[in-house]
Design goal:
The complex is a heterodimer of chains A (294) and B (317). In chain A, strands 1-2 form a two-stranded antiparallel sheet. Chain A has one domain (2-290): ABC transporter involved in vitamin B12 uptake, BtuC (Orthogonal Bundle), CATH 1.10.3470. By secondary structure, chain A is mostly helical. Chain A contains 11 helices and 2 strands. Chain B has a single domain (5-316), classed as Orthogonal Bundle (ABC transporter involved in vitamin B12 uptake, BtuC), CATH 1.10.3470. Chain B starts with a helix and ends with a helix. The chains are: A mainly alpha (294), B mainly alpha (317). The interface between A and B is large, with 44 and 44 residues.
Chain lengths: 294, 317
């Protein structure tokens, strides 16, 4: 019984991080139809920002989140300004293809730049409370994992409220549905896209903090996180930002069970199998029917 | 598209020249290594060209098919099966793998194919590096018997074969279907092109070429580190070579891989790690500003320089 709860809590902790990672990817994809293959690399960059703030300025990783978000959103806006905005006029299919190619190239630039600047060492942020757990009726809950859950819930709720309750959110939804018509009715589409790209990359930064604290960061470590983001988004369905959180939890739980059954080295295989199974049987995503758009 | 005797003659002369080269000159091991690597890259770049250049289905997991074939070839070869049997078996394995990932992802539009292939390559890399983390050494007799000529000629044969396959596809109904698909999927489907069938065919051909080059690469390197065969580099560099040379063209990937191998050899000496950054930036710029690569640029220049050629180009269309 305790083992079941342990697996369950592990799954929820991992799954909420996955949801957070999938969120940034899904936001950029569903709003602008850009596939950001470099999302995992941006997660690593966020982790590096957190790491250096911790190492040189002695800022606690969780307190450094706003700073990391500001840095990453600036990077995201630069990404939109210099690369993505040039693809704006292309038809959707070509835009998708070219954004994939460009961000795939970006992975190479960023990976090797990071290696050159900060060497290819594997790093992680180790605070005084790393590895501490509370024992709750035999179930061990780590502080880090719980903080990850709280962060994921807070940021995903905040994003949901931003998209549904504010004027900016309305503009984003309008630009998502039809950029041209939104522009005609007085919405500054480019600015809307610029800001949502900034938010998407800032979310990668938050995920980067969680990864740097709970896992590790390395220049080429981003691809593994990208896979997670993609599996989550495919499970949620292409356009459903709302269902990213349940999808992330589901992936986390499946992974927790698979780690328990087969051991940790095959968890990527399990998520690939999940991905293929979903594509074969329900290609529009597990939660597609109940979606209400972004 | 017809066969031009002039271009056929030129390419025949180049191939003949490359075939005679090691007989006439005593190439050192450096030049031999470079040339063999270039032939491997030509086959890989053409492998991306079939599906990514012609049909515009972005294939981000060439490494999966390259690595699978190379690894299986290596295992078979190690267990005493002759290399000329091991390479076809490895190639067939990577073709089978391509069906596994192609059937679910190619039915759908958008990013699924790119994601599926990338995920496949990464998953294979992670699993293989978990299970076989170290370099697998062949028995000493393999290293003692190492000579360049058979490796040179087999890789040259694979490169030439890949170019012939592309030429044959461009002159066939399959090529027409792929190019129409790359131009506009909806229009192609409406006019009765069976998108799914042709996409899967193209993927299987693409993974055959990747598999062949993987087998030849394994034959060339002898001792291999299994996890290195699946690194994303093997997916990335064919795309760069094709994009620089010109997507969808026959000669473009060859020129692209020539530039890539030669330049990366020079850059790696001078700049070390940083040369990947330069290739990445170059690649991004090419995708943004020269979507047809060097071949498109040549074409444009030719149109600008000579009016008769321009007229002929218009008449051919």
């Amino acid at each position: 019984m305790e083992a079941v709860f342990q697996i369950l809590t592990y799954g929820i902790m991992v799954g909420s991080l996955y949801a957070l990672i999938g969120m940034g990817f899904s936001l950029i994809f569903s709003v602008m139809k850009y596939v950001n293959i470099a999302q995992g690399t941006f997660i690593m960059l966020g982790g590096y920002a957190c790491f250096f703030l911790f190492k040189y300025l002695k800022i606690d990783p969780y307190i450094s989140i706003p700073a990391v978000m500001i840095i990453m959103s600036l990077i995201g806006m630069a990404l939109y300004k210099f690369l993505f905005s040039r693809l704006m006029d292309l038809p959707v299919g070509l835009r998708l293809n070219n954004s994939m190619l460009i961000t795939f190239g970006l992975i190479w630039v960023l990976d090797n730049l990071v290696t050159l600047l900060w060497t290819s060492d594997v790093r992680s942020v180790t605070t005084s409370y790393t590895g501490e757990v509370i024992n709750l009726a035999g179930v061990r809950l780590s502080y880090m994992g719980m903080a990850g859950v709280v962060l994921a819930v807070v940021f995903i709720t905040a994003l949901h409220l931003l998209l549904t309750r504010t004027y900016f959110g309305k503009a984003v939804r309008a630009a998502t549905q039809d950029a041209e018509a939104a522009g005609l009715s007085g919405i500054n589409v480019h600015r809307t896209f610029l800001i949502s790209c900034g938010i998407g990359i800032a979310l990668a930064g938050v995920a980067g903090v969680v990864v740097a604290v709970g896992y590790y960061i390395s220049p080429s470590g981003g691809l593994a996180w990208l896979l997670v983001a993609m599996v989550v988004v495919v499970l949620a369905g292409e356009q459903n930002v709302n269902w990213v959180f349940p999808a992330g939890l589901l992936v986390g739980l499946v992974e927790a069970v698979s780690v328990f059954v087969t051991g940790a080295s095959y968890r990527e295989v399990v998520s690939l199998l999940l991905f293929i199974t979903v594509l074969v049987f329900k290609p529009e995503g597990l939660f597609a029917k109940r979606s209400r758009g972004v | 598209m017809t066969y031009h005797w002039k271009s056929m003659l030129i390419s025949g002369l180049i191939v003949a020249g490359l075939a005679v080269l090691p007989i006439v000159f005593n190439l050192g091991s450096n030049i031999n290594n470079l040339l063999i690597l270039m032939f491997v890259y030509v086959a890989l770049a053409q492998s991306f060209n079939v599906i990514g250049g012609m049909a515009l289905q972005i294939h981000m997991g060439i490494a999966a098919f390259f690595g699978t074939s190379a690894f299986i070839t290596h295992v078979l070869w190690q267990h005493g099966i002759p290399i000329y049997l091991a390479i076809p078996v490895g190639t067939m394995a990577s073709m089978a793998l391509s069906v596994v990932i192609g059937l679910p992802t190619l039915r759908l539009r958008g990013m699924y194919f790119a994601i599926g292939t990338l995920a496949l390559a990464e998953t294979l890399r992670i699993v293989v590096s978990n299970v076989w983390p170290l370099t697998i050494y062949m028995p000493v007799s393999f290293s003692v018997n190492f000579t360049f000529p058979p490796r040179y000629y087999s890789s040259l044969a694979v490169a030439v074969f890949s170019c012939l396959v592309i030429a044959a596809i461009r002159n066939s109904k399959l090529g027409l279907a792929l190019v129409s698909m790359g131009d506009d999927q909806d229009a192609a489907q409406v006019t009765g092109v069976n998108l799914f069938k042709y996409k899967v065919t193209a993927l299987v051909i693409s993974s055959m070429l990747a598999g062949l080059s993987g087998g030849v690469y394994c034959y060339f390197r002898v001792n291999i580190n299994p996890s290195y065969l699946f690194v994303p580099l093997w997916s990335f560099e064919p795309i760069v070579a094709t994009a620089i040379g010109g997507m969808g063209s026959l000669v473009g990937p060859v020129i692209g891989s020539f530039i890539l191998v030669i330049l990366s050899d020079i850059f790696a000496l001078v700049l070390g790690e940083a040369h990947f950054i330069i290739f990445g930036i170059l690649f991004i710029l090419v995708v943004l500003y020269y979507p047809y690569g060097l071949m498109g640029l040549f074409h444009k220049i030719r149109l600008l320089v000579s009016r008769p050629a321009f007229r002929r180009a218009v008449a051919e269309r």
